[in-house]
Amino acid sequence: MYKPERIPLGIYVHFPWCIAKCPYCDFNSHQLRGALPAEAYVESLCQDLISQAGNVSDREVTSIFMGGGTPSLFGADVLCHLMTTIKQHYQLASHVEITIEANPGTFEVDRFAGYVDVGINRLSIGVQSFCDQMLKKLGRVHCASEAYDAVTQAKRLGFNHINVDIMYALSGQSIDGMLQDLEVACQLSPDHLSWYELTIEPRTAYYKRPPSLPSSELKDDMTDLGLAYLAKQGYERYEISAFSTPGSQCVHNSNTWQFGDYIGVGAGACGKLTMASQIYRTQKQSSPKLYQLNPLAYAKRELVSHDRLAFEVALCGLRLVDGMSWDDVTSRSLPITGMEIRSKLASVLVPDRLQFKPEAFHYYNEHLVALLS
Questions:
Q1: Are 104 and 127 spatial neighbours (Cβ–Cβ below 8 Å)?
Q2: CA-CA-CA-CA dihedral for 57, 63, 69, 74, to nearest 10
Q3: CB contact at 8 A, 181 and 168
Q4: In whole angstroms, what is the distance from residue 169 CA to residue 173 CA?
Q5: Burial group, residue 59, by CB count within 10 angstroms (0-12, 13-18, 19+)
Q6: pLDDT tens, position by position, for the chain (373 residues)?
Q7: What is the CATH code for 4-255?
């Protein structure tokens, strides 16, 4: 039997439209053609939220994450309706984290001031680079100065919790260029940074026409130097690609990697929900049009089988620098899950946690393959 009452709960809300589709992006995002159906789409989200509320009526929501796509295309008026629906049908923790993703190209002072009024208390800004040349190659719709101004404006508006997304190992990027991006980001003093290597994913424009990327050796040098720089600036690495000042870890993402639960609403949104005897993974229709026709329908709703639990728990928990306690592993899966993980990965784990030894953390993917064998 599982113990859902001991598992943190979040809500993920997906907004599928962007001004333009970036060539590296494999998320469920669609270029906006014509007018944004803001009110109609948010009404579908509200129907979806209400339909799922009964599954978690006795549980407290610790985080809400609005991702995309570009949620910041939506104004505060329609998001107010969304937040009102959530508050009416879900129990929110007193210090619930509420994040919205934003691109600098859609950054409008009046709109974001409204987000503060709605109760959104964390902003995640998709900067990617502070170099205009790199931004152009990445297909971004903003320039470096807009990115810098976006973070500055957000702080002025009262956002105390800001994440800045930065990519590295870009086509034509040097070590100096990578470090310059980090230097500018740190000068802005966000309390959180997501810093990750550009990877070429299937179903992207880059996959069809791959750019020339730095060599493996250069990527490794960038990684080592970037990690050292961020540590020197006071950013603690707590997940493979997440860094924060003390006490500013992203609640929603941390819950995901700790094998927590989250309701997924919106076109293509994924969810994970633990019942007393079952764990479900869900996914909504990826097409915005089909989703709006029937927001209550699932494209997928699958049970997580007992024989897959060990892999799923390790896939999540081992992304974290400090991993998970075995007690949390047991309460969020089954007693045998921890035993199975330890039997296959004992040589690379610290003795008393689901946590990689420091020298093993860099080889995350290779060790997960061993767990599948």
A1: yes
A2: 80
A3: yes
A4: 6
A5: middle
A6: 788 888 999 999 999 999 999 999 999 999 999 999 999 999 999 999 999 999 999 999 999 999 999 999 999 999 999 999 999 999 999 999 999 999 997 766 678 899 999 999 999 999 999 999 999 999 999 999 999 999 999 999 999 999 999 999 999 999 999 999 999 999 999 999 999 999 999 999 999 999 999 999 999 999 999 999 999 999 999 999 999 999 999 999 999 999 999 999 999 999 999 998 899 999 999 999 999 999 999 999 999 998 899 999 999 999 999 999 999 999 999 888 999 999 999 999 999 999 999 999 988 989 888 877 6
A7: 3.20.20.70
The pTM of the full predicted model, rounded to 2 decimals, is: 0.96
- Can you give the residue ranges of every domain in the chain? 4-255, 306-373
User: Position of tokens 């104004």?
Assistant: 75
Can you read off the two tokens belonging to residue 280? 């479900």
Q: Which two tokens stand for residue 1?
A: 């039997």
372: tokens are: 């599948």
